[in-house]
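Appendix B. Chain record.
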Amino acid sequence: MNSGTSTQIKTFALFDIAFRPLFLCGSLFSATAILIWAGLFSGHINLKVFGGGLWWHTHEMIFGFACAIVMGFLLTAVQNWTQKTSIRHFRLAALVLLWLSARLTLAIPSALPPWLISLIDISFLPIATFFFVRPIIQVKLWRNLVFLPLLIALSLVNVAMHYAVYTNNLTIIFSASNTAVLIVAMIMSIMGGRVIPMFTANGTGTKKVNPVNWIEKSALGSLLLVIIFNTGFINIPNTINALLLLTCAAFHYIRVTRWRFWVTLRTPLVWSLHLSYYFIPTGLLLLGISEISDLLSTSQAIHTITVGAMGLMILSMISRVSLGHTGRKIQVGVFMSSAFLIVFLAAIIRIAGQFFLDNYNHIIISSAVLWALAYACFAIRFIPILTKKRIDQ
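Structure tokens predicted for this chain:
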């Protein structure tokens, strides 16, 4: 082996820590999957995906994309919390291969028996959760086990999604997918509450806003109730559910407004997080309105959370984590700042496009292309960063 090849191997770091492959694969997959969905929806692509086009799109953007990013973040964060290694090298490569196998077989279901495809996909979250929980238990850092019931709930919802395919039950598909979105919103709310005030203080040189107990408990507690009462297992009157959703939205608006968005306007990695968080209560607000009015659809409300909150928060967080954990300055230039704005525009078109675009296909395609463009920007900017060693090593 020549010295050049040896140096390349030594500097290759994709499987050194979980965020590297999961952020990279997740972002590339989301850009590809959203374009495939736009093609399926508009009829330009004829692909027989597992569960049908709508199931596949809904499932893959949550359990394929979002869960990969969430686990990449948690498996990285747990090392900082516990000072213990969670998963790396061959085990991490195997976990990523499992995730990738699920994506491929769900897109090309003729390759394997349906039960095996489901087993491969369902296995990812529990296995990744095991590697997340193990170091927490070892050092008895019980506070961070708050994520465990949410990850277990997501795993169970994934089982329900697959069960709905075999039973052809559309009701379960819609209730399970909406529940999954709300659980991810809870994870984002917990993470956001922990890091956004700190990132705001560090990034703007201002004093950190300390949490107010009753606001924190009310925001997260009411969101937990929203999840419970919107699973489909418990039926409550639409007006009561709307009141719960509107109350929850109000608490989250109060929470995020206290973090002072206006001091972040010159710091893209911070204002993007604030802006993304605002989409959470806005989505809850629209869900509440959709319960009692025909002015807005449930789809618009859910996509407020998925495209606006999830899309923008993930793009901002993976950019920040990728820079910070590779020894670089936590700053982005015009390129990534533009990507944040592109996702924001994708969200606006997806949520409100029907009010200014006549053709629904154009709404889906436009929003999908913008999403794909934004996440392609991340891949272009961060592939060299995520595959090489820290610059301070």
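Further analysis of this model is presented in Appendix C.
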